[in-house]
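Sharing a chain and its predicted structure for anyone who wants a worked example. Both blocks are below, sequence first, tokens second.
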Amino acid sequence: MTDINALKDNFVVIFNQLFSSLGIEHKFMCEVPESSLNSVSEYSVLVGISGSYEGNIMFGFTKEPAIAMTAALMGTKNVNTIDFNVKAALADLFYDFAERVVSMSMAEESILLSNPAFITGQEMKAVISKAPAINLFFKIKGEKFSVSYYLAKM
């Protein structure tokens, strides 16, 4: 049986594994329950979950971590703007992140992940659902990074 309460620990484990492998300074900060699944970040990536569990995982971040993550992924220091290639690389990274968490947390379940949706805009506020969600806050290179999720057994 899947322990939904263990999800937070699995998110933190995968976050640490992923960002350590990229050589990016990172740290888990805190967990905050929310009344809805939302993001007020300049950049967000949304991955939908369906099957035995349904819900969403949303990653929210600012430009500086986006540049650092993409530079590490591409093995270059010449990433300066958030263009199509950067968005595609980050969408793939966070799809992989979500897939690892789901595999670790729900290996015995039948789960499908949607293609990632990249949401961007300085004044963008994304509210995905009114379902209660958990927000996990991290720091990447001193900047805020969030993972918000809502998953329910179907």
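Comments welcome. The CA atoms of residues 100 and 132 lie 23 Å apart.
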